[in-house]
Design goal:
Helix 3 packs parallel to helix 6 and helix 4 crosses helix 6. The chain is mainly α. 67% of the residues lie in helices and 0% in strands.
Length: 168
């Protein structure tokens, strides 16, 4: 966790990193660790810090979120942002985590309103890849839903097996 935070604080030159149509694999894998500016890095670190205190983010959550953010299609990632500009930053990873957190939030309407407001502000500013954020949030929500269904199915299976063993 400390390495992720430390890596995100740095505002490095882009060096061709990010999600775009002609990006090599290494550029896709490095994009969460590169930011377009100090303010961008600070906002991402602040949100990560808030997530860690609100919800126990484990290494498996971070790895899943990182994999989803790096696998976002370029056409989706760049929708809503400047055409041909690389999507960089930890925002995608954070939106996957926010999607995973969604079922656990007691005030979902307020949570979604705040998320929508920030997405609209980014979209109107023209410097945020809204497609990346929406893709990552939806994937995080699907991920937690699938895990929930699998654990429910496993619990049901164990209950049925226990009941069958109890039959005379």
């Amino acid at each position: 966790m400390c390495l992720a935070v430390a890596a995100c604080v740095w505002s490095l030159p882009l060096w061709g990193m990010g999600i775009r149509a002609d990006a090599p694999l290494w550029a896709r894998l490095a994009h969460p660790f590169v930011h377009g500016g100090v303010l961008h890095a600070l906002v991402n670190v602040y949100v990560l810090w808030q997530l860690v205190f609100f919800w126990p983010v484990r290494l498996r959550h971070l790895l899943a979120a990182y994999a989803v953010a790096c696998s976002c299609p370029a056409a989706v990632a760049l929708w809503g942002g400047g055409a041909g500009v690389s999507a960089v930053g930890l925002s995608g990873v954070l939106h996957v985590l926010l999607g995973m957190l969604m079922p656990h939030v007691p005030c979902r309407r307020r949570f979604l309103s705040a998320l929508l407001l920030w997405s609209c502000v980014g979209w109107w500013s023209g410097c945020v890849a809204v497609g990346l954020h929406l893709w990552c949030f939806a994937c995080g929500l699907l991920w937690v839903s699938a895990v929930s269904c699998l654990s429910t199915a496993s619990t049901l299976r164990h209950t049925l097996v226990r009941w069958l063993r109890e039959l005379p």
